[in-house]
Write a structure and sequence with these properties.
Elements lengths: L1 H40 L1 H11 L1 E6 L6 E2 L5 E13 L7 H12 L3 H10 L9 E4 L4 H10 L6 E10 L6 H4 L2 E3 L2 H10 L10 E3 L2 H5 L1 H4 L4 E6 L19 E2 L6 E4 L3 H10 L5 E6 L6 E7 L4 H6 L3 H9 L8 H4 L9 H10 L9 E3 L2 E4 L2 E4 L7 E3 L1 H7 L2 H11 L1 H10 L21 H7 L6 H8 L9 H13 L2 E3 L4 E5 L5 E4 L4 E4 L4 H16 L25
Parallel strand pairs: 2-10
Antiparallel strand pairs: 1-8, 2-3, 3-4, 3-5, 6-7, 8-9, 10-18, 11-12, 13-16, 14-15, 17-20, 18-19
Helix pairs in contact: 14-16, 14-17, 14-21, 15-21, 16-19
Length: 550
Amino acid sequence: MAESRFKSELLIDARRIYVAIAVFIFLVISLVGRLWYLQILKGKDFSIASERNRVREVTRPAPRGLIYDRNGSLMLANRPFFDLVIIPQYLQNKEQTLRIVSELFSIPLDQIEKRLAEAASVPHFVPVRIKRNLTLHEVAMMESNKFFLPGVDVDTAPRRDYQRSDSAHLFGYLGEVTGRELDTLNGASRDYQYRVGSIIGKMGVEKKFENFMRGVEGKDYLQVDAYGRLQSSAAMDFGMSARRNGQRGFDMWLTIDDDIQRAAVDAFRNKNGAVVAMNAQNGEILAYVSHPNFSLSMYQDGLTGEDWQLLQTNPFKPLLDKVTGGAYPPGSVFKILTALAALEEGVTNPQKTYSCNGVFSLGNGKWRCWKKTGHGVVNLRRALEQSCDVYFYQVGNLLGVDRIAKWARAFGLGEKTGLDLNMEVTGIVPSTGWKLQTKGAPWQSGDTINVSIGQGYNLMTPLQIVSMMAAVGNGGKVFRPYLLKKIVDPSGKTVAEERSLLRKRVTYKPENLALVKAGLQDVVMSPTGTGKRAQVPGFLIAILKLPLLR
């Protein structure tokens, strides 16, 4: 029996040994298989991933596309700027170094410390910009003291060369992308992703054509150790070069004529208002000025609280683009529309006259003409030449506001023009229904008198006015205004062009429009015209060649 028990125990021990051997063999096979998978099958992939862990990507801003006028005259270019930077990894004797930097470059010490604190989450080898756009004197001063300021350096970056900062509302300014803009821009495009600190167009042409003008950022690939510290620039041995050069953005050729633009800027110095010039035959914008202006370099250099306060409190609103965002009573220019409406609606004709003694009476109200002594007996053509208020009071009263509004809307007033540059307002074309809805009051006859000469509730933007005038000049075609002539890539190839687009066509009797044009020609060319000072010797100031009408 003892022998039988002994044999049984030996059998159990043998089984245990076999199980242990089997488990050991399984573990060895599993380990060998895993090693084969990691080192043989996936070895190359993991090797590349490992290499990438020791490489950090640093972006370099790309030069933005240039801006030319319609004739190829350069309007806005780039040039390299110098920035003062601190590289925390190499900073020694921090307190003393920062104090010296503060004194040398007149930067408050707390401002430097704040910038470094904001960049605390960024790898320490990444330069932190302390001061933008150093002068050449400051660059030389930095170079002469570089040995004593380890971790402090001068970096270069391409930025706009604002040699002329006289068309801020046209060009627009650049600024760092905000969190909200970052989400919107990156959500709209997968091909290009912005990052915190990216510079984007905030207004004008810079914003409208941001996708083309931004360029492609360059990238530097730097090797770091396990603690993220910059190492020597050894060759990248996994197929990646140490640098990828950026690509300049596409160039914009605008419809603007730079000679006309400069003349408009010079004419508006020390004035408050806007001027826009348009090719009446296709809607091309030839000049675009809103004044007072603001300095574009102010944003590029870094807008201070004091600068912002001055811009906000200026009563003439330099930040407002008055070309599209300013709505004003159009005044006497609206008489052109009243005249055409009166002819088309049969309220008046070329021969019908009204007497102007300087005052128009309606009920208990009295409305005066700009000429106190009156213009005497006038027909439509002379009323346009002399800008006679009383004449238009009378035909406007006969027309009624709703018929005036009908013709105003036919010329595209009371709606956006579609330029899509900066904020554009619709303006106001008043009517009986409009006043009841917005003011909660019925329309009065006196309201019509004011509207007939472009006053009262009438509101139009300068762009709407020029669009209306262009339609009068070209025979009733209301074009969508546009600014872009073509987009050219860095190789010189045209990649996009903007074409003329007809928004509306005004239907009228040719003889009626011809009569209105004749009156407008007289405004300047007649010795008694209210615009005779605009005459240019040797030139006929007219919208189009006109038949003789009296």
